[in-house]
Structures are given as C-alpha cells and as structure tokens.
Description:
Elements: H1 9-15, H2 17-30, H3 33-40, H4 44-48, H5 51-76, H6 78-81, H7 84-87, H8 92-104, H9 108-114
Helix pairs in contact: 1-2, 5-8
Amino acid sequence: MIKRADVSTKKLISLAPDNWVQWVTFATFVLESMLVQEIMRWDMAVLRESPWYQDEQRGRREQMVSNIATILEVKFGTEGLELMPQITQSDLAQLQEILRSIVAASTITEVRDLL
C-alpha cells in the first residue's frame, strides 16, 4: 500500500525555490489567486516579494499600459493619448478595468468620466 507523503510547503520551497516561485506565479495567471492560495496553502505576500514575481508583474503592467495607449490612439486619436499621464498612475488591477472601459466606450468623454 502506497502512503501519501506529508511534505510541507516550506520543505518543497526549500528544495527548488526558483521552480516553486515560477509555478505559483504561472498558476496565478491561469487561476484566481485565492484558489492558488487554497491549493498550495501559500501566503501570496511572500511570493510577491520575490524578484521574479515582481519582474513579471512589472512586465504585465508595462504591456497593459502599451495596449491601452494603442487602443486610445486607434479609437480617439491624439486626444485619447492625452489621457495617458493620468492612466499610467494606475496599478495593474485598475489598468485592467480602464482597458475594459475604453473598449466599451463610444466617446472620449465616456473614458474621461471613468477616470
């Protein structure tokens, strides 16, 4: 009869910390953070302190800002790009909401009102 191993999360992390961080980071892109925390019993605050995770988040944010600028320019021209200084002050979650709002907006006034 095979017994299930009782290996703690801390033990797994100590065996391969880079792989662990990469897996958990990837999982948060695919799954909700709360589900990953529940599955792994992992405090995301510790993960967020890792340089690898921070680099990934910074890259995601930069890409989101770039996407927003492109959509604003295509939909509203230079008038849309004038909103970028205000938009770039937002965090990743806010940027995602701004992107959705811009896609749904019919006029630049609608976008301004949402900011």
